[in-house]
Design a protein that fits this description.
The structure is a single chain. α3 crosses α4, α5 runs antiparallel to α6 and α14 packs across α15. The strands form 8 sheets. Strands 13-17-18-25-22-21-19-20 form an 8-stranded mixed β-sheet. It contains 21 helices and 30 strands. The protein is α+β, with helices and mostly antiparallel strands. The protein binds one RNA strand through β9, β10, α9, α12 and α19.
Length: 671
RNA sequence: GCCGCAGUAGCUCAGGGGUAGAGCAGCGCAUUCGUAAUGCGCGGGUCGGGGGUUCAAUUCCCUCCUGCGGCACCA
């Protein structure tokens, strides 16, 4: 409950889709917005998936989706030949390729892949035709039963009874209503000796499947449900030709180079070690970045009429029982007992997993008046959640994180205006971080919910109006709101086209009730405030990870831990370099940023090496000082782009850096 | 948490039943240099933890931890 803001969520990729197996609506299903997730999010969806637009694109006139789907069949045929005991699950086309879920008596491992791939090549060379055959569903079931294809039998049973293989909640919710009557006949596609239940369409023959490569194996629960057995999912990629395949593999390598775990270590920003899984050790440079963001956010929030608070880290479990967290999230909460070994106090404390109940306590102190509203309580709240081990990922998904959280206590009538203000602020902030492309999802009332419909009408309208007033177009995300209220979810797109959900604005009329927050109205009577949970960055940890990957480590000057490095050419230039450093550090940069963050490379390396090092560290400004500069009282300015700006006075250099800091991410990348 | 894979020097990685090796980094010395790597030398490892097999384990087996790729989760 208490949908505190913050948790940047992973845009979970569409899960098992069951397309291509008698699912008449697979195309629609594929386009449905994905359910969102919390903190995680390494590889998010493409905007296209959200914008209900294209599915898998055509390339060079080739219908990639069809080809990939056919490639999945080739995979299945190869596996059946090499492992006749295999039972097949589903095998759809996906963003860059395809997969097939397969059960074998001993699970397939990556060592099996070369042999399978070789067999697939043989099948491709034989140019076997894909032969469609329409069969009555009973006959299909009998065939699958006879060949031991239990999962296919299950799929057929679903088709027979309700006309779809869609998993509820995973695929288009309308699908059930439209297709509740079931189907009488299905199609098989034959490929040599191999025959698979499939709605098609396929390429004409196996020679047309293009360039493919099996990528990896992974476990995947049958029908995406962890109560079901786990199959081995074999992932492959498939493209129209070798060149496209190569290009794709190259893109993967490039994306890997941006990996924040690699870059973050190389840049000396942070580390994580065994004894503290899922929690970050921030090094001086990383913490400098963290603080730069915090400083910026603090200023923005202050401008936005927020006041900052700090609530306790450790609170008695009784408190969490009251808030409802104990009941719902106890497994994910860290607990602590004080006292010496063997003589602990009886009280059990829990480390806060969210900030909202704490904020309500502050609201509840003293007597609140309608004149206090809206009251915007911001908190850079450090939360701990015992995330499942498999979910941890660098600093993107961690067990201890800091939210740019805030809770706005207001009246129902104030919701539209507060929403608009929030949207404005958020967009402003994203822009400063260099994210211009924004997608806003509007998640409305879920089936299971608290509160009267009239309140929901009001809340939904108010939220939507607020977003519109801020000039944002929202994408409807039906039934995905929290049980306590509707929410807006803000997804930004990074430099290589990945989407990350960061911001959120949630209306909550449950927690104020539950924790008994009230204010005295104009009428002199007690009223319940509405609570808006909201976050912009989500978690600092995750957002910093996103920044690193977005900029491939080349952080904009205003965020760079070191903004300028002084490069004295010889020892005799160090003294002057120190002078320059002092002047830079004492400068007054815009936005109250203080002085330039500067250091000196006074090592005995040659100047070329110093420049190379600064370059590798992605330092925006290299200020070279040799005889000429020392004599003229100037610095020779080199940018990390390699551009040499020539000699200028220290004041000129400061002005230039100041200008860039002032513009933040708005400045086009330096030439 | 589940499936699969991995853990060797600070980093990237090679090796393999007889107590380990490269490049980079680090340290020392020389060099004082004009926009992406100066040269020479030196040091550095309980081969993730625990247990087992063996005359002998970093290597083989079991187990735990951590990480990676997915799945599931994500208030």
């Amino acid at each position: 409950m208490g949908g505190a803001a913050g948790r940047g969520r992973r845009l979970a990729a569409r899960k098992v889709r069951f397309s291509g197996h008698g699912d008449r609506h697979s195309a629609a299903a594929r386009r449905r917005p994905a359910p969102l997730a919390l903190q995680g999010c390494r590889r998010a969806l493409n905007f296209a998936d959200f914008r209900l637009a294209k599915g898998i694109p055509r390339m060079n006139g080739v219908d990639l989706e069809r080809m990939r789907h056919s490639c999945a069949h080739v995979l299945a045929a190869a596996v059946m030949k090499l492992h006749p005991q295999a039972k097949l699950g589903v095998g759809p086309a996906i963003a860059d390729g395809f997969y097939y879920d397969i059960h074998t008596p001993t699970p397939l491992t990556s060592e099996d892949l070369p042999a399978i791939e070789a067999e697939m090549r043989r099948i491709r060379e034989r140019k076997l035709p894909f032969v469609r055959e329409d069969v009555p569903i009973e006959a299909a079931a009998a065939h699958m039963q006879a060949t031991g294809q239990d999962y296919k039998v299950e799929l057929l049973e679903m088709l027979r009874t309700r006309g779809s293989t869609a998993a509820k909640g995973l695929d288009d919710p309308n699908l059930f209503d439209n297709a509740a009557q079931g189907v009488a006949s299905v199609s098989f596609y034959g490929l040599g000796d191999f025959k698979d239940l499939c709605r098609g369409p396929h390429v004409e023959h196996s020679g047309q499947v293009g360039a493919f490569k099996l990528m990896r194996v992974a476990g995947a629960y049958w029908r995406g449900d962890n109560r079901n057995p786990q199959l081995t999912r074999v992932y492959g990629t498939c493209w129209a030709n070798e060149a496209d395949l190569k290009a794709h593999l190259f893109r993967l390598e490039e994306a890997e180079k941006r990996d924040h775990r690699k870059l973050g270590t190389a840049m000396g920003l942070f580390h994580i070690q065994e004894e503290a899984p899922g929690t970050v050790f921030w090094h001086p440079k990383g913490w400098s970045l963290f603080r730069a963001i915090e400083r910026y956010m603090r200023a923005k929030l202050e401008d936005g009429g927020y006041v900052e608070v700090k609530t306790p880290q450790l609170v008695d479990r009784v408190f969490w029982e009251k808030s409802g967290h104990w009941e719902n999230y106890r497994d994910a909460m860290f607990v602590a007992k004080p006292g010496k070994e063997g003589e602990e106090e009886d009280r059990l404390y829990a480390i806060k997993p969210m900030n909202c109940p704490g904020a309500v306590q502050i609201f509840r102190q003293g007597q609140r008046s309608y004149k206090d509203l809206p009251l915007r309580l911001a908190e850079f709240g450090a939360c701990h959640r015992y995330e499942p081990s498999g979910a941890l990922h660098g600093i993107m998904r961690v067990r201890a994180f800091t939210q740019d959280d805030a809770h706005i206590f207001c009246t129902e009538d104030q919701i539209p205006d507060e929403s608009r203000k929030f949207c404005d602020l958020l967009r402003d902030i994203y822009k400063d971080f260099g994210f211009a492309d924004l997608l806003v999802k509007f998640s409305d009332r879920p089936e299971k919910r608290a509160g009267e419909d009239a309140i929901w009408d009001k809340a939904e309208n108010a939220l939507e109006k607020g977003a519109q007033a801020a000039g944002l177009t929202t994408l409807r995300n039906p039934g995905e709101g929290a049980f306590y209220g509707p929410k807006l979810e803000f997804v930004l797109r990074d430099a290589i086209g990945r989407d990350w959900q960061c911001g959120t604005l949630q209306v909550d009329f449950v927690l104020p009730e539950r924790l008994d927050a009230s204010y005295i109205g104009e009428d002199g009577a007690k009223h319940r405030p509405v609570m808006l949970h909201r976050a912009i960055l989500g978690s600092f940890e995750r957002f910093i990870g996103i920044l690193i990957e977005n900029y491939a480590g080349r952080l904009p000057t205003w965020l760079s831990p070191i903004q300028a490095r002084l490069v004295p050419i010889a020892d005799r230039h160090v003294e002057f370099a120190k002078d320059v450093a002092k002047r830079l550090a004492r400068a007054q940069l815009p936005h109250g940023e203080g002085g330039v963050r500067v250091d000196i490379d006074d090592s005995t390396e040659r100047m070329q090496k110093k420049i190379r090092n600064a370059q590798l560290e992605q330092i925006p400004y290299m200020l070279v000082i040799g005889d000429k500069e020392a004599e003229a009282g100037k610095v020779a300015v080199r940018l990390r782009s390699g551009k040499d700006l020539g000699a200028m006075t220290v004041d000129e250099a400061i002005a230039r850096i100041a200008q860039e800091v002032d513009a933040r991410a708005d400045l086009p990348a330096p030439a």
